[in-house]
Amino acid sequence: MVEANRVETWDVPVVDPQPGGALVRVVLGGVCGSDAHIVSGEAGQMPFPIILGHEGVGRVEKLGDGVTTDYAGVPVKAGDLVYWAPIALCHRSYSCTVLDETPCENSQFFEHARRPNWGSYADYAWLPNGMAFYRLPDHAQPEAVAALGCALPTVLRGFDKCGPVGRGDTVVVQGAGPVGLAAVFVAALSGASEIIVIDQVPERLAVAMSLGATATVSLSGTDEAERRRQVYDRVGPRGPSVVVEAAGVLRAFPEGANLTGSHGRYIVLGLWGAIGTALISPRELTTKNLRIGGATFPKPKHYHEAMHLAARMQDRYPLAGLVSHRFAISQANEALEAVKSGAAIKPVIDPTL
Ligand SMILES: [Zn+2]
Ligand SMILES: [Zn+2]
């Protein structure tokens, strides 16, 4: 990405890994809603030119000096499939060592496109020392791990930070893109008694049902009052105990806050690229005993957990099938368009195309 709204294909050198690092041949590079927000300029200035792509599964091409295991202590060698957490932590900052939080003050999200680079819209990803990567379990399908991309780690991080979904929770998920689908998937595995998903695309709502949703509400042909009526009809007069924002648009925020039942939680995960303000009645936080929280930038442990969860569940849930579109590196613009239009559940960059 050279500047806002300008993505080009460049040839850059492939560089040997540094000590402690790894060079990985990209197998699948996930195309994420955040990438579309970065390209449109909505997410603010980036250190252009950059290589896009913060979701990747790849095959170890070469390991840096001293590397014999992944970041969970599992032996790793050239040819193994790995999945990586795309933010390098410095392990010597206040966030890293005192707060135990991500990202840290020294985190770098992107590198100049002509320098060794971990962007996954590329043939190779150069993982610096300190960037956690994990070996896929034997028999794990790369598509199943890539299917929910950074969305599954994001949801695990959000539930970690804002409180997990428990048995008997009644959950509403706003938006059935990858983050919303991951929220449905985790809520279903956690024993939620109702999982109601709101979206406008019928195909996405159908996928949500296949991952454990119990009901859907369409955005088309309904207004906020009607959607609320449908949700409350289903969960009862107390309203949902958890609402998850995964819509990525500001107008979802007041609706989600209003929708959350008394003593409930509203977990905001999708507004990373939606800069702006929205009006709510703060009094409701008091009178309804509401908690509103948000989270982003999953920790390495959330990537580790997501990878193992996907590998464990790949035969019970149609995860690999969520990878709906494959694009060559040179088709990155089309891939971004597919994610923006909502036409694709999960497009990926496949460098072999
Ligand atoms: Zn740090
Ligand atoms: Zn992402």
Automatic annotation (TrEMBL):
InterPro entries: ADH-like_C (IPR013149), ADH-like_N (IPR013154), ADH_Zn_CS (IPR002328), GroES-like_sf (IPR011032), NAD(P)-bd_dom_sf (IPR036291), Zn_alcohol_dh (IPR050129). Keywords: Metal-binding, Oxidoreductase, Zinc. The keyword Zinc applies. It comes from Pandoraea terrae. This is Alcohol dehydrogenase GroES domain-containing protein. Residues 178-311 form the Alcohol dehydrogenase-like C-terminal domain. The keyword Electron transport does not apply. GO terms for molecular function: oxidoreductase activity; zinc ion binding. CDD domains: MDR_TM0436_like. Gene3D superfamilies: Medium-chain alcohol dehydrogenases, catalytic domain, NAD(P)-binding Rossmann-like Domain. Pfam families: ADH_N (PF08240), ADH_zinc_N (PF00107). Belongs to the zinc-containing alcohol dehydrogenase family. Residues 19-133 form the Alcohol dehydrogenase-like N-terminal domain. Its cofactor is Zn(2+). PROSITE patterns: ADH_ZINC.
